């Protein structure tokens, strides 16, 4: 992604419309710098975050999990929550929280788009996943348009 200013602006608009408030599909999201084939970066691991406050060091085990691609055999953690992958697709996967205190449950969608990983967290049953996926897919589509 060549133009960081436009990516940041895109993120800000998307996050304000999709994260945090009641009735919005996502409770939190992270945009992580991620390119396993590229050279080491001097950039921060966390490009953007909304609705959650994590440090780069907190995400290193998660990034190792993603790189290993042994997704159906391991759990991964984001913050205090542990997740188990439930669905794998070409450029994304879904997982459910196994230690949630929320009665409706919690889930996460992880999608690679360009040199970023988009990590979107939602509350609710599996029925909430489609709404979350629409929001994630919309940002990924907008980001991919910027690179072409």
Automatic annotation (TrEMBL):
InterPro entries: PFN (IPR048278), PFN_sf (IPR036140). SUPFAM superfamilies: Profilin (actin-binding protein). GO terms for molecular function: actin binding. It comes from the Eukaryota. This is Uncharacterized protein LOC109716095. It comes from Ananas comosus (Pineapple).
């Amino acid at each position: 992604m060549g133009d960081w200013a436009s990516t940041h602006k895109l993120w800000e608009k998307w996050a304000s419309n999709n994260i945090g408030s009641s009735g919005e599909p996502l409770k939190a999201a992270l945009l992580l710098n991620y390119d396993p084939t590229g050279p080491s970066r001097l950039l921060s691991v966390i490009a953007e975050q909304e609705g959650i406050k994590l440090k780069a060091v907190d995400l290193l085990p998660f990034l190792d999990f993603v790189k290993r691609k042994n997704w159906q055999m391991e759990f991964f953690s984001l913050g205090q929550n542990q997740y188990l992958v439930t669905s794998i697709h070409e450029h994304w996967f879904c997982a459910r929280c196994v230690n949630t205190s929320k009665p409706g449950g919690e889930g996460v969608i992880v999608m690679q788009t360009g040199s970023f990983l988009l990590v979107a967290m939602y509350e609710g049953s599996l029925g909430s996943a489609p709404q979350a996926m629409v929001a994630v897919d919309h940002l990924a589509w907008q980001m991919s348009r910027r690179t072409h």
